[in-house]
Amino acid sequence: MKRIVCNVLMFASVVAMLLSCESNVAKKTLLKMEVDKIQKELPIKLGSMGDLSAVTYEDDVVTLTYLVNETLSDIDGLVRDSNLVKENYQCMVARNNAMQKMVKEIAAADASLVLQYKGNTSGKVASVTISKDELANTDKFILTGTAAAEKLVENITRLERNRMPTDVGNGIKLVDAFWEGDNYIYLANLDKSIYTIEGLKMANKNDMKQGVIAALSNDPSSRTFIEAMITLRKNIGYRYQVEDSKDHVDIIVSYSDLKRILGAFGKK
């Protein structure tokens, strides 16, 4: 009787193993079909960021290659800090159901993921590998809502600070970006040979605000950032200070203003 029980348990174990293998093969086949489907649609436009230019699935590794617009993306910053590539992808996935589906299929097939961001002019490549163990916890890997928005703003801050000071023309340079209460502040330094703090304080603040709103509305690359700020219900501020002066003038684009800007994007 004991031998019969052992044989039954062994048989059950073998059957379970075979079923598991069959299930795993099916999931890998499903992922291969999905990759083949995406390959036929390449390149896939991803807005102002650039294009998904290549997808491969070999040896249990899915590789996604993005051709990024270097006029809007800091490829050097991504090369220096490859973790930004992963976190940027997590933020992209948070806003795209098709990407979420693919991440789950990669995880189900027990595969890993390689992300490559390639500059469209320099050809420089920033790359990161995301292990199958990290992907297995999809609920943690796929950021959503506030977590995704906070991560996106954090990434943008790191990249922008790497490029600062940034000359935006007319004797104005962006020299820092930081949180101050509910406001995300861009600190702008004004050339003292052109501007005075007295003149700055006398300027029409509403006209200055409308100029900032117009600039944001005409910059497609700002859309993702604005969406994140709306999710967080925060404001964007610009702090103008003349060189060597401790005084400054703040222009705040409120949460409500940002919602109107986002609405304008939808009409373009």
Describe, in plain words, how this protein is organized in 3D.
This protein has 268 residues and is of the alpha+beta class. It is built from 11 helices and 10 strands. It has helices spanning 2-39, 75-80, 83-94, 97-108, 132-136, 138-141, 145-163, 197-202, 205-217, 223-232, 255-266; strands spanning 44-45, 50-58, 61-68, 112-119, 125-130, 166-169, 172-180, 183-190, 235-242, 249-253. Helix 7 (145-163) packs across helix 10. Residues 1-21 have low confidence and may be disordered.
Beta-strand percent range: 25-35%
Strand ordering within the main sheet: 1-2-3-4-5
Briefly note the structural class of the backbone.
alpha+beta
Low-confidence runs: 1-21
Mean pLDDT: 84
Number of strands: 10
Q: Considering DSSP H and I runs of 4 or more, what fraction of the residues is helical?
A: 40-55%
The shape is elongated
Distance between the termini: 77 Å
Q: What would you report as the Rg, rounded to the nearest angstrom?
A: 25 Å
Encode the helix/strand succession as letters: HEEEHHHEEHHHEEEHHHEEH
Task: Tally the helices.
Answer: 11
Produce a short descriptive summary:
The chain has 268 residues and is α+β, with helices and mostly antiparallel strands.
Task: Give the helix/strand layout.
Blueprint: H1 2-39, E1 44-45, E2 50-58, E3 61-68, H2 75-80, H3 83-94, H4 97-108, E4 112-119, E5 125-130, H5 132-136, H6 138-141, H7 145-163, E6 166-169, E7 172-180, E8 183-190, H8 197-202, H9 205-217, H10 223-232, E9 235-242, E10 249-253, H11 255-266
Parallel strand pairs: 3-4, 8-9
Antiparallel strand pairs: 1-2, 2-3, 4-5, 6-7, 7-8, 9-10
